[in-house]
Amino acid sequence: MMKKCCCLLLIAVLFAACEPLETGDPPTFTSGVTATAISQSQIALSWTPATDDLLEPEELSYAIWYSKSSETFDVATDEPSVITPEGAHGYALLGLDAGTEYRISVRARDRGNSYSETLSNDPQTKVIATEAANAGAFREELVIDLTRTPEGLAVGVGDNAPRATVALLSGNLVTLQTFDSSDAAETTTDLNFGAAVTEAHFVRNRDNLNYDDLFVLAGGSLVYLPNSGTGFDISDLEQPFTGSATTHSFSTFRGESGVRGVMYQDNAGAYLYEHDGEGAFTQQTAPTLDADERVKLININGDARPDLVFFGPGGVAVALGDDDDFGFDNRDEVDDDFTRITSEHTLYVVDYDGDGDQDICILERDRDGSPETQFHVYTNNEGTFSTRTVTDYGDAQLMDPSFPVLGATDVRSLLFVQETSNTAVLYSSPRDTTLDGIYGGSGQADWVRFIDINGDNFEDLVLLSAASDKLTVLFGRE
């Protein structure tokens, strides 16, 4: 009898293993696909997610077929050219021929390998040409194969001002990658910090210089590496800071010509240092924090005094500086209805609208366990903050935000990595959900920045992929 039960159990297990992963209806995909020629070698695609009777939208992938218009494919019989990761809202096709017309079709795909139906007017099929050679906003992308898997990205000006340096974080190393004026990768320099590096910041720190110093979180501590003007030498490393430092806690207060204050925090509290403008730091009395609270050192209202922004379980508050020597008034409540959840919220303070007043922006991801992205914004008008506005990006799974200045004014855009794709997406501000741009790199994207790499006064786009060990650079043309 026991042998019979075991055999029946084995048959049941084998039968279950042979069943398809998903046996419902095919996905419903009614969104039109938007196709944009990014350069002479890249076309970026975006779409509104499909729905399914069994799966959530973030559990659907997308199949992409493409060929030159002079060639043919059949979505009913041919294998897709690309299958995206689950949850993608877009994808970029790279390595295309300049000035060439392509036919592209996209279908939603469930885990049972069922595809959405072709609609009568087929809004998911596009015919579009790449930019002609030497035309478009970007030149042909440069893809660099990395020798180590990257774990982070920073950009700034190292030893070739005004050309920028790209810093790749991996283990104990910060690898500095520079580029020459002809858009070619130039030299790499490895800086070994002797402990795991989790964050790096290029900061225009000392007075009246046109290059940046490095602040690095290594082994849980904040360290300082000054720039000699001809580059970085790890033997110049300084450790003026006490305690430890958590990621996303580093902030600075700028004066007219350089940094005047540095702040960071760990689980024990905050640490505050005054900077003399020449590379020396003196510890000051830091504010007392509540449990799970974050604080940023900024200048709120342009009066040349350092101020503080708090975000924690008690809500959002500010404390204005009462003098130039890092004394602060009592906290003023901004919003006590919006409280910080450690795993979901990251605090940013940035002048996104270019009016000279620092605004409070809070990124919320994976709210209540769902893959959603929101930006909560308090706009600052001479020290008075607006009621919180919420910008909802739905289940787009966006991460690694940065705030580049891309126009002639100081207004900042909002740049994200799309976590489940090889693309970065651009919005005009943290209060806008209209897509301004979508750009692609080689491999699933993890980090992205705009920076002028070659010193030609055009912003270049840097995309870094840990999954494929690739660094992609799109050189700006206009």
Automatic annotation (TrEMBL):
Any Pfam family the entry gives: fn3
Tagged with keyword Signal: yes
InterPro entries assigned to the protein according to its UniProt record, in alphabetical order: FN3_dom, FN3_sf, Ig-like_fold, Integrin_alpha_N
Keyword vocabulary terms for this entry: Signal
Domain of life assignment: Bacteria
Signal peptide: 1-16
Domain Fibronectin type-III residues, every copy: 29-133
Protein name, entry field: Fibronectin type III domain-containing protein
Species this chain originates from: Acanthopleuribacter pedis
Lineage per the UniProt record: Bacteria, Pseudomonadati, Acidobacteriota, Holophagae, Acanthopleuribacterales
